[in-house]
Design a protein that fits this description.
Elements: E1 13-15, H1 29-40, E2 45-48, H2 50-56, E3 65-68, H3 72-78, E4 82-85, E5 91-96, E6 99-105, E7 107-108, E8 129-130, H4 133-138, E9 147-150, E10 155-158, H5 162-168, E11 170-171, H6 177-183, H7 186-198, E12 201-202, H8 204-213, H9 222-231, H10 238-248, H11 250-254, H12 256-264, H13 271-288, H14 295-310, H15 316-327, H16 331-347, H17 364-378, H18 383-398
Parallel strand pairs: 3-6, 11-12
Antiparallel strand pairs: 1-10, 2-3, 2-9, 4-5, 5-6, 7-8, 9-10
Length: 399
């Protein structure tokens, strides 16, 4: 049995309201407005992608995206609060205050619907032709992301077997994964992200394709790779995500110095993953309070074990330069990351014996959090760090 879809189906599997757990009360009210309006104007409009997947898993989606038969210009004419973005494929952003409901016209690409893609390219396809719900489902990356929710009859529409894979907790490529990953190597990183975030297993054919073509990630656009790297930290799943990157060889392609260090530091038992696990706990705590962790803090934690091993011969600048050279991280991430890596020495001394003016640095709170994450991972006392925190609080009360 093959691990990918190769034959055209006669039609989708329709899961009626009684067959799934999605309720309108769990869907963003503004996304519902978009769906209802487009349908009332005679267009087909579905909730699509990760939002449907997360609702079926009982999770709260971060985004609610809409797929529609309406062209971008037709969507813009239908909503006063809409503007179009994108060159490769025009997307409609419908604004509700600071919130965006991204609305895309159903797409198609050069593959025949449901057949193995025969054309491989160095970069992603130019998805600039409109299609149908069926073609749109088949052009998506993984089966669990290819499900549509129909607001008209409250059904879930499944062209690609996504519902079965959700139930089996499997990440499976739509189409031959070898070809899909050569088309767009970033899909391999997305497989890792979804596996770590959802706790799903990547099925064997998709896994084999990643192991075979992992080095093709170096042909992908660096800004996209950098963006996807930092997405691995979200939802408190970075330890599992980076462990998969390491296991599949992707980390060795993107950050070879770090990967070699992990080899020498116990492999999957490396202290790197212990620090990332501590970061994950911090990320979950911050997320529960409505805050997001900075990418500089994430980068510093990722490089901490390597920095500590190499610090006799490498400064924080040299270590963070590795990420900047390989991933083209923003300069703000670089400079703040350097400060965080080098802050431990200063904050390991009581404020009375150190330069107290550090509390006025704009990144001081990140430094406090960074050191707390590392101390907790190492099981060490936070007593001195708490003294710094108290001093910062006193400063705020006196201003």
């Amino acid at each position: 049995m093959f691990g990918f879809l190769t034959k055209k189906k006669k039609g989708p599997v329709i899961y009626k309201r009684a067959d799934h757990c999605i309720s309108r009360k769990d869907i963003d009210s503004d996304a519902l407005k978009v769906l209802y309006r487009l349908n009332s104007l005679g267009y087909t409009a579905y909730l699509v992608g990760g939002g449907v997947r997360d609702l079926l898993l009982g999770r709260k989606p971060k985004d609610f995206d809409v797929g529609t038969s309406a062209t971008p210009n037709e969507v813009r004419k239908s909503f006063r609060n809409c503007f179009l973005i994108g060159r490769r494929f025009r997307l409609a952003h419908i604004m509700f205050g600071q919130k965006v409901i991204e609305t895309a016209t159903f797409r198609r690409n050069s593959q025949t619907v449901g057949e193995i893609i025969e054309h491989a390219a160095e970069g992603p396809f130019e998805d600039n032709t409109f299609g149908t719900p069926e073609t749109d489902a088949y052009r998506r990356d993984f089966t669990v992301n290819g499900l549509f929710y129909n607001i008209k009859d409250f059904s879930v529409i499944d062209w690609v077997g996504g519902m079965k894979d959700l139930n089996k907790k499997i990440i499976r490529s739509i189409g031959d994964p070898e070809i899909r990953f050569r088309e767009d190597p970033v899909r391999m990183m997305r497989a890792v992200k979804f596996s770590a975030r959802l706790g799903f297993k990547i099925e064997r054919v998709t896994t084999a394709a990643i192991k075979k073509y992992h080095s093709s990630i170096l042909t992908a656009a660096v800004p996209r790779v950098c963006e996807e790297i930092f997405r691995l930290f979200t939802y408190g799943c970075s330890a599992d995500a980076f462990k998969l990157l390491y296991k599949f060889g992707l980390l060795g392609d993107l950050l070879p110095e770090l990967s070699r260090f992990i080899d020498s530091d116990g492999g999957e038992k490396s202290s790197t993953f212990r620090y990332l696990k501590s970061l994950d706990e911090y990320e979950k705590m911050m997320s529960s309070k409505g805050f997001e962790v900075s990418n500089a803090l994430r980068a510093a934690v990722l490089m901490t074990a390597f920095f500590r091993r190499e610090k006799r011969d490498a400064s924080g600048r040299k270590v963070m330069q590795i990420m900047m050279d390989s991933l083209k991280t923003p300069k703000s991430v670089y400079f703040t990351g350097v400060l965080l890596l080098e802050s431990s020495k200063r904050l390991s001394q009581p404020p009375a014996k150190a330069k107290r003016k550090f509390i006025h640095n704009r990144d001081f709170l990140d430094a406090l959090d960074y050191n707390r994450i590392i101390l907790r991972a190492d099981g060490e006392s936070e007593k001195i760090l708490n003294q710094w925190a108290d001093l910062y609080e006193e400063k705020g009360n006196n201003e």
